[in-house]
Amino acid sequence: xLKEELLKSIWHAFTALDLDRSGKVSKSQxxxxxxxxxxxxxxxxxxxxxxxxxxxxxxxEEHFRDDDEGPVSNQGYMPYLNKFILEKVQGNFDKVxxxxxxxxxxxxxxxxKTPLLIxxxxxxxxxxxxxxxSEDKYPxxxxxxEIEYLLKKITEAMGAGWQQEQFDHYKIALNTxxxxxxxxxxxxxxxxxxxxxxxxxxxVSMAINEVFNELILDVLKQGYMLKKxxxxxxxxxxxxxxxxxxxxxxxxxxxxxxxxxxxxxGNCCVEALPDRDGKKCLFLIKCLDKTFEISASDKKKKQEWxxxxxxxxxxxxxxxxxxxxxxxxxxxxxxxxxxxEQEELExxxxxxxxxxxxxxxxxxxxxxxxxxxxxRAAEEEKKRLQTQVELQxxxxxxxEREKLVRQKMEEQVAQKSSExxxxxxxxRELEEMYKxxxxxxxxxxxxxxxxxxxxxxxARLLEEESAKRAELEKWHLQQQQTIQMTEAxxxxxxxxxxxKEQALQVAMQQLKQLELERKEALEQYEEVKKKLETxxxxxxxxxxxxxxxxxxxxxxxxxxxxxxxxxxWGPAAFTEAELEQRQKSWKGKKATSx
Length: 594
What we know:
single chain, alpha+beta, PH-domain like, seven-stranded antiparallel sheet, PH_domain, cell projection, DNA binding, cytoplasm, DNA-binding
């Protein structure tokens, strides 16, 4: 609005004022007391003058009176400016004169000392255009999109071609350092001729003036045309200037001698007329009280003026602002929308990043827990394998020992078998001898029968036979004893072998019993682990309850010394210690039964 446009120009003038030793603007530069001497009168009093606002010295003195806070601060001037000056502005002031006054206060301090290709007047117009196109935040800057818009307008007014690639390189260099340019940097950019190479000073000046007229003075179209008089009916050349609600016409383009105005509103209309009375390219502007006949220089100019006037009337009917102001508002809204979308996107990205970081932390926690669990499982597996290896080694040693004992027993059995074979061989020999003796006895009996005569010899032979029989019986008894001893030793070896096999089976059963005991130990370990986790959860719950009830006063009632258990049905019939004793007794009975 109007207030924001005025504030931008005043901001330049205000920031150009000299500061006192404390770094604040002194009161003498802001108020106009004492005959408006010094910079004070230049700002406050002159603002009231150019804006056609009545000056109130009493209000100034009251606002800027000395107090405990010391000199007036920059922030303290804005409430006064809004209340006593800007609130009273009616719009009946010269915009160019107001801007020129603010420009006079700030230009000398801020303009670059390097020579520029544009005049001070052109620099003033660029400064006013900057205030129109700059963002509504302080310190004032013009963003790259508005710089491109302004340079395009100036280039188009000069009749030159727009160098988009050159501006893109400049825009990239600008975006890497800051958001935009200040008014004085924009003046340096246009005055350096970087985007108007090959153009003389006069062409650049005319282009700046054309853009200034359009954007600041709201000149939608201007040019020479012939106008038919209302009284004398003669045709006179006039310089016409079309604005959003009025067409002014002057003697010449210097705008010094104004001849009249055509007030436009939604009821006006423009019509093309046929050539007549020697005049060509005629058109008619109809208003409520008057009608104006105008002749353009050619058909193209005639069509351009008819279209421009009709567009202006249509905007008045719709209550819309001028095209350049509407376009500026749309550009700002688009930038704000893009900025809001970018901020929303950044917010979402931050949320996603935060969520991702939380997920990463959770995953890291889970990973550490899994690693710890894997380490514990590996340790348990290592212990189990170590126990298994120890049992296998012990069993292998027992088997080796058993194998050695068996081997020794087999060797002993083989040795005893060999001795038994020898004894049997001797027995067979004795049996053979016994058979031979029987045959001899038979022979002797036959000889005794045959040779009765030689009884003495026979008696002697009988005696010898009896002696030998006795000896043979003795040998036979010895043989029987030897056989019995061999059988006993064989039976003893067989018993030892059976005892060893039974010991081996006992060792195997002990190994199985150890495996069962290991499994029972693992199950007891898992049960104890679960009980430990349950106890930890109960402890945490108890701590939460204690923290929750901390500070409350509870009545202490007389009762038994031992704490009683409380169930859903009231106090228990026995204490917790008695319960633990019963549980231990029950577990002992269960273990005994198993």
